[in-house]
Amino acid sequence: MNYLAHIFLARQSDAAMIGAMLGDFAKANVQGVYTPEIEREIMLHRYIDSYTDSHPVVKESVQLFEGPRRRYGGIVLDVFYDHLLTQRWDHYSDMPRHELIARFHRALRAHMDILPEKLQAIAPRIIEQQWLAGYEELAGVEMAVTRISTRLSRNGHLMREGLEDLRANYAAIADGFERFFPDLMRFTEQRRAELA
Questions:
Q1: E strand or H helix at 169, and its extent?
Q2: pLDDT above 70: residue 1
Q3: DSSP readout, 11-72?
Q4: pLDDT tens-place string over residues 17-65
Q5: Does position 175 have pLDDT exceeding 90, yes or no?
Q6: In terms of CB atoms within 10 Å, which of 59, 71, 122, 144 comes out highest?
């Protein structure tokens, strides 16, 4: 899952949302580095990623990517799932999306001093360029995938070309998301309770 979904799944507190964001930026061993709640959400972020990658519906969706683009299908899907979550937000959340995003931005500013250097560097852009709000349109997905692809040492074009597969299979992937996301929400709550 990408940033918006992780933050949505950790919406119960500001610290949890920070931990959810840190999952992609913190070192492997975080024990004793952050508060217990933040550490728990970092670990949960990693479990969520593993669960997502191994879910049968997600695996089916990855197969919709053609040839060598399939290698990057999971990454492209992660970003696209934020778009699908945005499109169905009212189905999953009572809190308006713009309120959650604003709350996350405030939390990010408040926790700036504990963020790893890489996240400190991009946090202002996340806020100012409204990355999380940008998933509402497919153009926001395309921009995010392009941004991610530039960080690859090679074959970034294959990731960008995967956007063609998204467009061609939009309905099938959206249907899969509707079957997958409730499973992910249940998994997240169960795993969080186990980690507590």
A1: none
A2: no
A3: TT-HHHHHHHHHTTTS-S--TTTS-HHHHHHHHHHHHHHHHHHH-HHHHHHHTTS-GGGGGG
A4: 999 999 888 877 777 779 999 999 999 999 999 999 999 999 999 999 9
A5: yes
A6: 144
Which phi-psi region, left, alpha or beta, contains residue 31 (left: φ > 0; alpha: ψ -120 to 50)? Answer: beta
The upper half-sphere exposure of residue 34, i.e. CA atoms within 13 Å in the direction of its Cβ, equals 26
Condensed to tens digits (0 to 9), the pLDDT of residues 56-75 reads 999 999 999 999 999 999 99
CA distances from 5 to 29, 66, 69, 141, 153 (A): 23, 25, 23, 13, 26
> What is the identity of the amino acid at 16?
A
- Tokens 């931990």 -> residue: 19
Q: How far apart are CA 49 and CA 63, in angstroms?
A: 18
* Distance between CA atoms of residues 81 and 9, nearest Å: 13
Average pLDDT, the chain: 92
> Both tokens of residue 52?
């997502």
Whether the predicted model's global pTM rises above the 0.85 cut? yes
CA pair distance 6, 161, nearest whole angstrom: 25
For residue 66, give the DSSP letter: -
